[in-house]
Amino acid sequence: MSDYYEILGVSRDASTEEIKRAYRKLARQHHPDVAGVASEEKFKNITAAHDTLSNPEKRRAYDMGGGMPGMGGAGGPGFGGFSDIFETFFQAAAGGTGQRGPAPRSRRGQDALLRVSIDLSEAAFGAARDLEVETAVVCTTCQGTCCQPGTHPKTCDTCQGRGSVQRVARSFLGQVMTTAACAVCGGYGTIITDPCIECSGEGRVRTRRTVRVNIPAGVDEGTRIKLSGQSEVGPAGGPPGDLYVEIREKPHPVFTRRGDDIHCSTALPMTAAALGTVLNLDTLDGTQEVDIRPGTQPEEVVTLRGLGVGHLNGSGRGDLHVHVDVEVPTKLDDDQEQLLRQLATARGEERPEARLAPASPGMFSRLREKFGGR
């Protein structure tokens, strides 16, 4: 029998995708329905070569010398390699032969992770997003059987459908019996002689589809939402994996989030802070009136209850904290300066005495921001 790589016309270091492309090209040329009955044997060889080389486990076994009839193992004809020796030793220590039934072709699909960016409003109230994902779905031509319609897998002649083979190996322990997965069928017990051309015998095809994800209120940076069964279908139409959606929260131009509370700053003229006023503030819930009491001091915080981010997996919302920054005028005209001097005289503040007090934490934070310290 010819070498499988020669049959497909690919190099021994060819990628899986190169092997699949070579198979599709040859399968279309030599399929009995196209080239006649005379090409049936050649088509079977092409199929067997593809079935072995497109499967990483079967290809690895084949490259080690166990994939062709009449070829010995890695240690030469009649001699097992070191892997056989250690395999046999541990099997004997375990008190068993290690034999097992044929492996199923159908396997669960892999999980997948997507990242989606949301704004603060979506995090506060929740949202629904339609995500377009590239994934694998069941092949509609073979319905996940991996075979051309109207055909079925053939029982492996080498292992007689058991999925494993036994052989005698000679080692320093003497002659021992080893049991390993059949290299011809890859341990499946059957060989697909006529793979589905549409999916190259995988039972699944790649496609793009839309998945809707409901983002609950209260999600934060790094939160992961699990969508069960929304990832790719497994080989041979196996059950799909799960899709995880990881949240990335975009910075807001005004509000800063800390947990479920949000913070912002507002600048007040010195006179408004002294006399009190009412501010119209644009919040996540629309325009809200904020009462500034007379005598409001710099760094004072006004809290608006329930205007923050919704609590994840709970009811209610965080708060909105408005940090007040009092602005002192830097330029005064003559009339304004005269009025302030009259006020200072009335309050006895023409020459105020210095009253030292411990620096507030807010002062140090402002200094760190100004000078870039830690």
UniProtKB/TrEMBL annotation:
InterPro entries the UniProt entry points to: DnaJ (IPR012724), DnaJ_C (IPR002939), DnaJ_domain (IPR001623), DnaJ_domain_CS (IPR018253), HSP40/DnaJ_pept-bd (IPR008971), HSP_DnaJ_Cys-rich_dom (IPR001305), HSP_DnaJ_Cys-rich_dom_sf (IPR036410), J_dom_sf (IPR036869)
Transmembrane portions of the chain: none
Cofactor note: Binds 2 Zn(2+) ions per monomer.
Location in the cell: Cytoplasm
CR-type domain location: 126-208
The UniProt record lists the keyword Repeat: yes
Residues given in the record as Zn(2+) 2 binding sites: 156, 159, 182, 185
Protein family per UniProt: Belongs to the DnaJ family.
This protein's name: Chaperone protein DnaJ
Underlying gene: dnaJ
